[in-house]
């Protein structure tokens, strides 16, 4: 009985993790804010505005976004303003792009 309860608990936990991944990567805005959160910029992930910007290179399946106020990286002493969001199937994945 206890072993079965433990298996059910693990299945529920695994299902919740998969569901959270799906939900947090369904829109570009959520994917970008999730990326900021997991990089350690918690305040910026919740309080920043995300705006879509035009980029001269029209990359397929990629869109560029600007975060304001941008997170400040202490290691490189720079501001992380521009982020690239790529669409893979139905999911969006964000990463820091650099200066545009």
Walk me through the structure.
Helices cover 40% and strands 29% of the residues. It is elongated, with a radius of gyration of 17 Å. The chain is α+β, with helices and mostly antiparallel strands. The chain has helices at 2-24, 28-38, 42-47, and strands at 49-53, 62-68, 72-73, 78-79, 82-88, 91-96. The longest helix has 23 residues, at 2-24.
Give the secondary structure arrangement, pairings included.
Layout: H1 2-24, H2 28-38, H3 42-47, E1 49-53, E2 62-68, E3 72-73, E4 78-79, E5 82-88, E6 91-96
Antiparallel strand pairs: 1-2, 2-5, 3-4, 5-6
Structural class assignment: alpha+beta
Strand content: 25-35%
Give the end-to-end Cα distance, rounded to a whole number of Å.
Answer: 59 Å
Main sheet attributes: strand count, strand direction, barrel closure: 4 strands, antiparallel
Q: Round the Cα radius of gyration to an integer and report it.
A: 17 Å
**Looking across the biggest beta sheet, what order are the strands in?**
1-2-5-6
Shape call? elongated
Return the string of H and E elements: HHHEEEEEE
Question: Outline of this structure?
Answer:
The chain has 100 residues and is an alpha+beta fold. The chain has three helices and six strands; from the N terminus they run αααββββββ.
Provide keyphrases for this structure.
100 residues, alpha+beta, four-stranded antiparallel sheet, 40% helix
